Automatic annotation (TrEMBL):
Residue runs in coiled coils: none
Gene Ontology CC annotations of this record: plasma membrane
PROSITE patterns the record matches: ATPASE_E1_E2
UniProt subcellular location: Cell membrane
Keywords: ATP-binding, Cell membrane, Magnesium, Membrane, Nucleotide-binding, Phosphoprotein, Translocase, Transmembrane, Transmembrane helix
Superkingdom assignment: Archaea
Protein name in the entry: Cation-transporting P-type ATPase
Pfam families: Cation_ATPase, Cation_ATPase_C, Cation_ATPase_N, E1-E2_ATPase, Hydrolase_3
Membrane topology listed for this record: Multi-pass membrane protein
One biological process term in Gene Ontology: proton transmembrane transport
Cation-transporting P-type ATPase N-terminal domain boundaries: 16-89
Segments crossing the lipid bilayer: 65-86, 92-109, 257-279, 285-309, 784-806, 826-847, 867-886, 898-914
Length: 938
């Protein structure tokens, strides 16, 4: 239900809420720290309306409808119709206008369907927010937010309503959408009494349309929908239209070029007819018009748009949501995929397998997030002091986590988690030792968090311990070690020496080489009352407690996808925040790394490299490890500089620049932040690397389908033009086999559905065995034109003219081609034969165009049902034209003997076989080229 946009959520909404205390804010908005109840929020949605901006006004549907009847070509046809009427050929005038009408309707219908497909995709991407309602944190759709709701904010979240902060921890907000200032601003929860600021500058207010750059917080919603600051300026930004993709632009260009060529040819023929033949002026004009209509590919652009939209729908089914249509075509050109490891190549389902503390190591049993299992020492006799160390490590690990374990609802359900899998795995391992998060947290309540950051690669939490405080910290071992000065062994403290440091690193490497992800845990008791402003004030001189090593198995589909990429000559570069040896081990398991000595470049190495050095390193097998998002950006930039088309994955806020910079930014749908999703071109709903490869395959298929129907449409132009050419050059001694009306019935009748069917071909076998297409390559290539106009087109023309003469020859004019009767029943039945020959050869032609290189047998003769529907539609239309008297009169056909169909149908396989033969030769030449380029050694 949409509420009245004029109703303000409360009068208080218009007031500044910055100076109220938190309890005053609660009273003002009739809410509490446990949030609204379900009933109350439903009531408020009724009262204040949905939290959405009023939709931008699109161009009126009528204007868009009319646009299909008023473009250059349409105007030409309207005028052509008028001339036909003036020339006393009302039949033709009506036909030309009908053509225009059908064509316009068809284009509009395709445009409309493409738009609906794009709208449907947008609906697959609702924005979600986390709120506290009924005392629990819930994920709701952003449009259900109401004033009084408590929003839970964390790094990367898109803020969907204006709010007053009631809690903030290291919170920084990117307000650039409102202020243009890209530097994130610090926000706090305290009341603010100074009133000399503009509303946006208040540090305790957050605004819709902005996003959380770092930190966490809670905010009471104070304004929603059009009442937010963003809503007030949204009107200014609405109505921006999506630009045409390069392919669509090319199609506009192609259609325009072909129109110009067609019109020029038409004019040329007009003059040839009036000078070379005795054809009347009016008839010459009509012929010229026919030529133009025959050549102009009117339906090409809307069919391309539809093919792109259909491609994006197919990608959505394969878990890849496309945000811009042009991304569909770029995807097909991707030559490098820069991918994260955790969650994309691996399952992001962590299970702790090993724990190491100075003096002992332990094995952890159990599967998944079920906290059933044991932690057993790897050695038989172990001091009780070491067991205390283990217990301390588990307490530290769980308290320094934000994840939660969710028990199953039914016996058969598995345990699930809320939050970060790395942290959940630590909670599970701790539970196995009998360390329960809730109990520990009530004993040592958390008072502050220094959130995880992919640059620091660690996080810490501050807890109360009686009157003192205690800090727990966890993170990447080397980062943690840099902050420690002592270690715990047998419940006693020792200074960290070089020996123990190198022992810790050796153990870390040993785990990492098995593909395990390793985290170090540390702690520190704080007894003095030092002011703690930021993490640096406390994160030093820590006590090292131990290492936790967890398994994150590769996704099962990934190895196959990696193989596909290798065949398709697409490089895969792993760019991970994880440790080099862990990354290498996983990369080897899934086949990204095949050589003995891949190059492992760390973030620190990258900092030392200049661009030229990096370019050199980017040639062989390479893994980037322990990198931060800035490094990812650098790698993407350099790859693009070397001419690669780069797809890059990302999930965090800091990944946004790299996602934007890449040709295809790929955000993770499950673990990705809103900011990453916003910056990306494509969103993976399953976070799976294999889905990127599937999307690339679909992207390649869309492009080749567009080529297929373009080729198909161009081919039938030849047999439409040849009769005119013969007629003109024979000075009208060869009768015109296909007049304007039959041509129109092909272009706007029989050809339509088969062309659409080619647009929905599934990916051709072997489409991923070719190198990536060059982004600059055009749809209309020389080979496409040669195939259409100089190979398939002439075969079709031969069929059409021979069918035309066949009817004369079998009716007393054996062997004659000149001076045949050009009117009367025999002529009209010969025209019927010629028209039917176009249709039967188009059956062979549509099947021939289903594949570019591979044999139709490999693609499966019946794998695209639409094609057979298209063939059926062609046959029905031609039968109507030939046998229904009304259409016979309009189109100018007459029936011919039934046995002639044998002659006509023989042409369909003839054309297909000829094309199969050509493809076979092409494949042979390709194979020969490959074997000779590899020196003849296979
Ligand atoms: P990828 O970049 O492939 O997704 P990643 O998850 O390892 O890999 P980051 O999330 O940037 O990348 O993490 C970098 C490192 O930070 C990890 O290898 C781990 O050592 C440490 N780390 C990850 N999550 C946490 C966490 N919740 N708390 C503390 N340290 C963490």
């Amino acid at each position: 239900m949409i509420g009245d946009p004029n109703v303000r959520p409360s009068d208080d909404q218009s007031e500044l809420n910055y100076s109220s205390s938190i309890s005053e804010i609660f009273t003002q908005f009739e809410t509490r720290s446990s949030g609204l109840t379900g009933d109350e929020s439903a009531r408020r949605v009724q009262k204040y309306g949905k939290n959405s901006l009023i939709k931008p006004r699109k161009k009126s549907i009528y204007i868009r409808f009319l646009a299909n009847f008023t473009h250059l070509m349409a105007i030409l046809l309207w005028v052509g119709g008028i001339v036909a009427f003036i020339a006393h050929m009302p039949q033709l005038g009506i036909a030309v206008w009908m053509v225009n009408l059908i064509n316009g309707l068809f284009s509009f219908w395709q445009e409309f369907r493409a738009e609906k497909a794009a709208d449907a995709l947008v609906q697959l991407l609702p924005l979600h927010v986390r709120v506290i309602r009924d005392g629990i944190t819930k994920n709701i759709e952003a449009e259900d937010l109401v004033p009084g709701d408590i929003m839970v904010l964390s790094e990367g979240d898109h803020i969907s309503a204006d709010g007053r902060l009631i809690e903030a921890s290291e919170l920084r907000i990117d307000q650039s959408t409102l202020t243009g200032e890209s530097h994130p601003v610090k926000k706090v929860a305290d009341p603010w009494y100074d009133s000399g600021f503009s509303k946006i500058e208040y540090p305790n207010l957050v605004f819709a349309g902005t996003s959380v750059a770092s930190g966490t917080g809670l905010a009471v919603v104070i304004a929603t929908g059009m009442n937010t600051e963003f809503g007030k300026v949204a009107d200014l930004t609405q109505g921006i239209e999506e630009e045409k993709s390069p392919l669509q632009q090319e199609m506009v260009h192609v259609t325009r070029m072909v129109t110009i060529v067609a019109v020029s040819i038409g004019i040329l023929f007009f003059f040839m007819l009036i000078t070379l033949t005795s054809v009347t002026l009016a008839s010459s004009f009509i012929f010229a018009l026919g030529m133009i209509v025959a050549f102009v590919p009117e339906g090409l652009l809307p069919t391309v748009t539809l093919a792109l939209a259909r491609g994006s729908q197919r990608m959505a089914k394969r878990n890849a949501l496309i945000k811009r249509l042009s991304a569909v075509e770029t995807l097909g050109c991707t030559s490098v995929i820069c991918t994260d490891k955790t969650g994309t190549l691996t399952q992001n389902e962590m299970t702790v397998q090993k724990i190491w503390i100075p003096g002992a190591s332990f094995s952890v049993s159990g599967v998944g997030y079920n906290p059933e299992g044991t932690i057993t020492p790897d050695e038989v006799n172990i001091d009780s002091g070491l067991l205390e160390d283990l217990h301390r490590l588990c307490v530290a690990g769980s308290l320094c986590s934000n994840a939660r374990l969710i028990p199953p609802d039914h016996e058969t359900d598995p345990w699930t988690i809320l939050g970060d899998p790395t942290e959940a795995a630590i909670l599970v391992a701790s539970e196995k030792l009998g360390v329960h998060y809730e109990e520990e947290n009530s004993q040592y309540p958390r008072i502050r968090e220094f959130p995880f950051d992919s640059r620091r690669k660690l996080m810490s939490t501050l807890h109360l311990k009686n009157s003192d405080q205690i800090l727990y910290l966890k993170g990447a071992p080397k980062s943690v070690l840099d902050l420690t000065s002592s270690f715990m062994k047998n419940s006693r403290l020792y200074p960290i020496s070089e020996d123990i440091r190198s022992e810790i690193i050796t153990v870390n490497d040993f785990f990492a080489e098995q593909g395990l992800r390793v985290l170090a845990i540390a702690m520190k008791e704080i007894t003095d009352d030092d002011q703690i402003e930021n993490s640096e004030d406390v994160e030093h001189n820590l006590i090292f407690l131990g290492l936790i090593a967890m398994m994150d198995p590769p996704r099962s589909e990934v190895s196959e996808a990696v193989k596909k990429c290798h065949h398709a000559q697409i490089r895969i570069i792993m760019i991970t925040g994880d440790y080099g040896l862990t990354a290498k081990s996983i990369a080897r398991k899934i086949g990204i790394i095949t050589t003995d000595n891949p190059h492992i470049i760390t973030g620190a190495d990258l900092d030392q490299m200049n661009d030229e050095e990096l370019k050199r390193h980017l040639t062989g097998e390479v893994i980037f490890a322990r990198v931060s998002p800035e490094h990812k950006l650098k790698v993407v930039e350099i790859l693009r500089e070397t001419g690669q088309i780069v797809a890059v994955t990302g999930d965090g806020v800091n990944d946004a620049p790299a996602l934007k910079k890449a040709d295809i930014g790929v955000a993770m749908g499950i673990t990705g932040t809103d900011v990453a999703k916003e910056a990306a071109d494509m969103i993976l709903t399953d976070d799976n690397f294999a889905s990127i490869v599937n999307a690339i395959e679909e992207g390649r298929a869309v492009y080749s389908n567009i080529k297929k129907f373009t080729g198909y449409i161009f081919t039938s132009n030849t047999p439409e033009a040849v009769p005119f050419i013969l007629f003109a050059f024979s000075k009208a001694r060869i009768p015109l086999a296909l007049d304007v009306m039959p041509i129109l019935s092909i272009d706007l009748g029989t050809d339509l559905v088969p062309a659409l069917a080619l647009g929905s071909e599934p990916p051709e076998p072997g489409i991923m065995d070719k190198p990536p297409r060059n982004l600059k390559e055009h749809v209309i290539t020389r080979s496409l034109l040669l195939r259409s106009y100089l190979w398939l087109g002439p075969i079709q023309s031969l069929a059409v003219m021979s069918a035309f003469f066949y009817q004369y020859w079998t009716n007393g004019y054996w062997g004659k081609i000149f001076d045949l009767p050009a009117e009367g029943p025999l002529y009209h039945s010969a025209v019927g034969m010629a028209l039917a020959a176009v249709v039967t050869t188009q059956i062979g032609n549509v099947l021939a165009h289903r594949t570019e290189r591979s044999s139709i047998r490999a693609a499966g003769l019946f794998s695209n049902k639409m094609v057979w529907l298209g063939i059926a539609s062609e046959l029905v239309i031609i039968l109507i034209i030939l046998y229904v008297p009304f259409f016979q009169t309009i189109i100018g056909t007459a029936p011919f003997p039934a046995q002639n169909w044998i002659f006509l149908f023989a042409w369909a396989p003839a054309l297909l076989i000829a094309e199969e033969f050509r493809k076979g030769i092409m494949r042979m030449i390709e194979r020969h080229k490959i074997s000779s380029s590899s020196g003849g050694i296979s």
